[in-house]
Amino acid sequence: MAATAQGGGRSRNLVLAAMIFAVAMTFIDQTIVSIAVPQIQDELSLSSTGVQWAVNAYLLTLAAFFAYGGRLADTVGHRKVVVAGVLIFAAASLLCGLTPKGGVAQTWIVVFRAVQGVGGAIMFPAALGIVVQTFALRERGKALALFFGVAGGLTAVGPILGGYLTEWTWRAIFWVNIPVAVIALILIAASRPVTEHRPAPMDYRGLALIVAGVALSVFGFQQAQIWHWSNPAIAICIAAGVVLLLVFHRVETRTASPLIQVRIFRDRAFLVENLVLGITMLVFVPFFFFASEYAQIGLDKSASGAGLYLLDFFIGFVIASQIGGRMLDRGGAKRPVVLGCVLGAVGFYLLAGQVTDLDFGGQFWYIVLSGAGLGMMLTPASTDAVNRASRLSYGEATGITQTVRNYAASLGLAVLGTISVARFQSEAESSLISRGVPAGKASSQAHDIAQSHQTSSGASGIPHFIRLDFADATRTVFSVMAGIMAVAAVVAQFGLRRGLQVEEETQGAPAGTDPQL
């Protein structure tokens, strides 16, 4: 492979470092903003819906434009697209931090959070495509374990860093991306990664369909916690989004140069890996949200303390990610993916049994085990899925897997959020009744408590029995997560085949190269 032969180990490692710094911003921003929400809302006088969209606008555009980013990288050139993505993300971060006070504030911050998401969506598939093309097939597991392990670990750094930066000014949570972007651009210029690409026209019809389909359905899932599932607009949004995605699939099969080569799903391993990734993403991203809430409400942790709770999860994640990557290189994806799903299921099950004790010490090893399970399977599943594409379609394959992952994460947050609120409300109502509160009044109070808990900044002033009720709701959520991981293990066990993947040379039209900007 031309791209794999470039330079030696030192050159390849420099490319890897450059790509890790490039995507670091996207991982940090998935969690860092949530910590500063109260300060942002207070200073800018945002409505509850406005501040919710200051968080969701980023996640929505990130999910909607991943497929476009992957296709753009494969047709224009991976390095050009990474640089463009870094510049867009950094500029949008700067402007988010410069949000003016007054009537324009809400529109300003939501728009530039959305632009951040677009920058991240075009940057990530291109960066991963560079890493995949830089390392030979038998070295990718180890390289991508480091890529996903370090970059993924930054998701846990977000709340910790955000907690400290917010003490100075909430604007710093956006400005911290600027030095990271500068380092990434310097490393890209120094490493000068060379990749192959194939110039082709952009399928704008397909782009419009998938962006609208993903955006509408993800919007529906995100709004479920605001509008509630009983609102018919939720079902309408999700149904319309799904219909558009089905139309997208049909259109792509008849398009000469499609945004996504949907026939890649005929590859059984690619299809199964994406199914497993989709199932586990119902758990992975939502865990940060529910664990952070539990740490602050149930365990009376500060925002930065909640970040440390998540950091324990990533101790297991990062270590097991390296092990899973090496297992992939030695024997293929099936064993680490199945084993990781099983470990995750056991970890969440054991963790669920401990959360009502309100004792962090008794939970530590189960948190680590849960993280280890997800770390062991995510890198091999993601890497093996991307390896199924040709050298000229790595960006496209990454765009597909990331769209699946973000779509599933939105679904997981909505469904598990509904379960959490319903369980919390039920437990709180029973507790209030047992303390002599009339049934009607208890039901009303429990509803108010359950709906307002997401804005709580800690357990101070919350009665002990309410903390226990919230912990019980968290136990239910973690138990469901254990079941979801068990389902993923079954799908991987029966859907994946054992053995190493054989590297094949790309057939088809002549490729271009991306030697310079």
Total number of strands: 2
Count of the separate structural domains: 3
Give the biggest sheet.
2 strands, antiparallel
| Helix-strand pattern | HHHHHHHHHHEHHHHHHHHHE
The CATH topology of the largest domain corresponds to: Growth Hormone, Chain: A
Q: Could you name the ranges where pLDDT drops below 50 across 5 or more consecutive residues?
A: 1-7, 454-459, 504-517
Supply the CATH superfamily name of the largest domain: MFS general substrate transporter like domains
Mean pLDDT: 83
What global shape is seen? globular
| CATH uppermost class of the largest domain | Mainly Alpha
How many helices? 19
What is the helix content? over 70%
Strand portion, in percent?
Answer: under 5%
Alpha carbon gap, first and last residue? 21 Å
- Rounded to the nearest angstrom, the radius of gyration is 22 Å
**What structural class should be given to the helix and strand makeup?**
mainly alpha
Q: Which architecture name of the largest domain does CATH use? A: Up-down Bundle
What do these coordinates show?
The protein has a two-stranded antiparallel ribbon with strand order 1-2. With 517 residues, it is an all-alpha fold. The radius of gyration is 22 Å and the shape is globular. The protein folds into three domains: 8-195, Growth Hormone, Chain: A (Up-down Bundle); 204-258; 267-500, Growth Hormone, Chain: A (Up-down Bundle), CATH 1.20.1250. Helix 13 (268-297) runs antiparallel to helix 16 and helix 14 (303-331) packs across helix 16 (364-387). 77% of the residues lie in helices and 1% in strands. The chain has 19 helices and two strands.
